[in-house]
Amino acid sequence: MRVDGRIALDIALRLSDGLAVPAAAVMAHFVFSGAEVPSPLVRMAFGVNLLNVAVCFTVIPVYRRWWLRGFAADAVLLLLAWSAAFAAFVMYLLLSGMERSTSGFWLMLWYVIGGSMMVLSRAAVRVQLHRLRSRGLDCERVLLIGLRAPALKLHRLFIGKPEIGKRMIGYFSSGDDVPLRATAAAPSRLGGLEELTGYMERHRGEFDQVWVSLPLSGVAPVRTVLKEIDRFPVPVRLIPDISGLGMLNPGVHFTADVPMIGIRQGLVTQDYRVIKRVLDLVIAVPALILLLPLLATLAVVVKLTSVGPALFRQRRHGLGGQEFWMLKFRSMHVHQDVPGQVTQASRQDPRVTPFGAFLRRTSLDELPQLFNVIGGSMSVVGPRPHAIQHNNHYERLIERYMHRHYVKPGITGWAQVHGLRGETPDLRSMKKRVQYDIDYIRRWSPILDLRIIVLTAVKVLGQKSAY
């Protein structure tokens, strides 16, 4: 019988977190106050923060399918929830007037020790999970019927990430299999469809699931296969081949017990919405507070160096194609565009003021969009919002152009850190930018957002491609 070690490890992870939080508080107290018994107010604060941790670790899905995330992504999600709990705790102390009776040094020690202990416990749990999987324990064995592109992709994923805990024993070929190159990594061929039931009869108990990977062009082949394996009581899954339908993060949904396949849906999961919003606020609010003096100084200089308002507002398309007012520091002389047309800024553009050229080159003109982020119309990271006239023009020329709006637009994005910033003088440049935007939506993770923010600071600020 297989040992489901992942369940035991999941329980161990929750218990280790439950022990690490109070243990870190006690350790921090002894470092700060020695053996002195905590005062009633400190004990009350301790209890309040434990409640905060419980709530934040539930709202932010710290434990949900953690074994499918990489260690770095798991650690970032953990620290995000841990930081949110402490931010709420500090807000409680300020509002209740308890900040004077609670040491900031104790809180900082608690935060650092607790976060370190939980990260280390995750590393230990993952080492144990790899050991189990390397010994063949807690690993589901999959029998494959047919070999379409999605099934082949899954096979390669399981080889590269054994921690997922699935292994394809082999496949039974059909006349609709994808052609394989000599170097292609594919599961072992066990025979044709006519040999399927004989194999399953001889090897009962040696596989845990059956996956059917046949084309959806006709229901008859799938129905025939399902009827043949009806007498084998193992879970059966259908892997639909929808790769030619312009997918964007597809998924399966149930409404009134009716299954539906989502072909294009962007990032609509509750996990994404919560994590993305928390990450935006954690970054944007402190950044805005720190940068307020700079924002005020830039606004004054814009007013003094040219006639017109300090801020420039323009209608842009946001999430779902809905319009919003995007804010920027004004970098051009006040002028009227031709109705229905927006001309991109170019090198030596006479409309750009001298100080505006500096703002655009350093991307400082984008800083007011922190207000858009806090207001919820933008995100820190996402596809850059284009002028509405540009969207109306390019959506007819570039396939899947409007897929960019399945997520909120961002101050910086995946395309920008790859040098696709500023003017797009030809259709090819815009196509490449859209490709990076769609790739970002497919690959999104908190780690990717943080990576883009770091790359923005290193590579984008000061680029000469924006005029």
Automatic annotation (TrEMBL):
<dbReference type="GO" id="GO:0009242">
    <property type="term" value="P:colanic acid biosynthetic process"/>
</dbReference>
<feature type="transmembrane region" description="Helical">
    <location>
        <begin position="75"/>
        <end position="95"/>
    </location>
</feature>
<feature type="domain" description="Bacterial sugar transferase">
    <location>
        <begin position="276"/>
        <end position="461"/>
    </location>
</feature>
<feature type="transmembrane region" description="Helical">
    <location>
        <begin position="107"/>
        <end position="125"/>
    </location>
</feature>
<keyword id="KW-0808">Transferase</keyword>
<dbReference type="InterPro" id="IPR017473">
    <property type="entry name" value="Undecaprenyl-P_gluc_Ptfrase"/>
</dbReference>
<dbReference type="Pfam" id="PF13727">
    <property type="entry name" value="CoA_binding_3"/>
</dbReference>
<keyword id="KW-0472">Membrane</keyword>
<protein>
    <submittedName>
        <fullName>Polysaccharide biosynthesis protein GumD</fullName>
    </submittedName>
</protein>
<dbReference type="GO" id="GO:0089702">
    <property type="term" value="F:undecaprenyl-phosphate glucose phosphotransferase activity"/>
</dbReference>
<dbReference type="InterPro" id="IPR003362">
    <property type="entry name" value="Bact_transf"/>
</dbReference>
<comment type="similarity">
    <text>Belongs to the bacterial sugar transferase family.</text>
</comment>
<feature type="transmembrane region" description="Helical">
    <location>
        <begin position="44"/>
        <end position="63"/>
    </location>
</feature>
<keyword id="KW-0812">Transmembrane</keyword>
<feature type="transmembrane region" description="Helical">
    <location>
        <begin position="12"/>
        <end position="32"/>
    </location>
</feature>
<feature type="transmembrane region" description="Helical">
    <location>
        <begin position="281"/>
        <end position="302"/>
    </location>
</feature>
<dbReference type="Pfam" id="PF02397">
    <property type="entry name" value="Bac_transf"/>
</dbReference>
<dbReference type="InterPro" id="IPR017475">
    <property type="entry name" value="EPS_sugar_tfrase"/>
</dbReference>
<keyword id="KW-1133">Transmembrane helix</keyword>
<dbReference type="GO" id="GO:0016020">
    <property type="term" value="C:membrane"/>
</dbReference>
